[in-house]
Structures are given as C-alpha cells and as structure tokens.
Amino acid sequence: MSIFGKIMGAIFGTKADAAPAGGGAAAGTGSSPGTGSSAGTGSSAGSAAPAATVDVAPILDKAVAAKGEKLEWRTSIVDLMKALDIDSSFTARKELAKELGYTGDSNDSATMNIWLHKQIMMKFAANGGKLPPEIKH
After folding, report:
1. CB–CB of 78/53 below 8 Å?
2. What is the pTM of this model?
3. 3-class secondary structure for 106-130?
4. Best CA proximity match to 121, nearest among 74, 81, 89
5. CA within 20 to 30 Å of 124's CA: 75, 91, 115, 135, which one?
6. Which of helix, strand or coil describes residue 54?
C-alpha cells in the first residue's frame, strides 16, 4: 500500500474507502452502486450519509494521545505521520511527495514538508474530512 493510502486508510478506514464505490455497507442494495454518486440513493441515505463526513481532528488527537508525546499534527507532516504509526523518515516523505506529484526540490525538506502537509489536508477535505478552521488551506 502506498504511503498516501496508509494515511487515508488511517483516517477514513476501510469502510469509508469502500463507501464511495458502493461499499460493503451498501452491498444490500445491488441496484444503487451505479448511482452511488447521487446523494439520494437508498443505501447512502441511511448509513453512508453520516459517514460521508469524517471529523479528522478527534481521530488524530486520539492517535497523538495514544503516543504519549507532543505531536503537532495540525502543522507538521512528520508529526501527523508519527501519530498514525507511519514511517516519517525523510525517505518516506520523499516517496509520499512523489506519490502526490511534488515537482519541487525534494532535498529542500522544509519546503517539501509544508507542501506535503497542505496536500494531505486538502486530500482529507476533498474526501469528506472535516478539518478544524485553523487548518483550512
């Protein structure tokens, strides 16, 4: 699994990953996956609609608390990755940057880290993640 996939899976889980495609929870309504993008489908109205928005902060705050160290996931891609038990090494971050299409100098870790954090927050928001107001990029 890609590093980006691990991050998204940690926040949205496997059920959330499957839901936009018709998902396991919606399997009982075999006729609706073709219209899964419509908000009014029978399967999404019952269970997928509440799951469509995932409040990111409590998930990451809980992960940080479990780590028992001060991690600033709201501003640091390294701390976000550490909180989720994902390799946050420079090599791993370079790989994540490659996955997300970074075109800058990957040896400029500060610039790359800022870009990565912004991209991840935008990906969370684009996939139904609710971010605290101070994080909106």
Report:
1. no
2. 0.73
3. CCCHHHHHHHHHHHHHHHHHHCCEE
4. 74
5. 91
6. strand
